[in-house]
Amino acid sequence: MGKISCDVKDLGVDAMSFSSHKIHGPKGIGGLYINNSFKNKIKPLLYGGRQEIFSSGTLNAPAIYSFAKALELSKEKEDYSYIKNLNLYLRNKISDKFKGYKINSPLENSSPYILNVSFEKIKSEVLLHMLESDNIFVSSGSACSKGNNSRILSALNMDEKYIDGAIRFSFSHDIKIEDLDFLVDSLYEYVEEIRKVF
């Protein structure tokens, strides 16, 4: 949502959920599309006022408005090709500078807004904190799997030497090429430093 076309008719979906924070909107608010033909299959968890179809309670109007505004702004940017170029640029910079790495995100048929890369002989949590000292913020996994190895990378039969060193980079229209150059310089310094210890 807000990154690629999500026309529910083109997609032919019965239901689709989407989160505000993924498009720079407020946390704690999201949306749920339900096809009219599918509504009778959904039962409420909490019952309340008749004005609420699926959930009781007072709507968070400021958050809903903010979410709508964030979606409107994300549609105005239309930055898909710009983001794709950033993703490709970072892939190439990593390929040119590093040894002992594996790019886990396929080049085609994947979102350019995310790039997952594994570096062998490092611990991603250590790298994450070192990068934070340079105001570079990356992730070592999804928020719902903190402390565990990635089930996705394990399912792909990835060599164990890469799984511990998986880092996820996220792209937005706020990032510039110079930011990626700075990232790669810091990344190289810290990966080499960690490898001396591990």
From TrEMBL:
The keyword Cell membrane does not apply. The keyword Ion transport does not apply. InterPro entries: Aminotrans_V_dom, Aminotrans_V_PyrdxlP_BS, PyrdxlP-dep_Trfase, PyrdxlP-dep_Trfase_major, PyrdxlP-dep_Trfase_small. Pfam families: Aminotran_5. PROSITE patterns: AA_TRANSFER_CLASS_5. One of its GO terms (molecular function) is catalytic activity. Residues 2-182 form the Aminotransferase class V domain. SUPFAM superfamilies: PLP-dependent transferases (SSF53383). Keywords: Iron, Iron-sulfur, Metal-binding, Pyridoxal phosphate. This is Cysteine desulfurase family protein. The lineage of its organism: Bacteria, Bacillati, Bacillota, Tissierellia, Tissierellales.
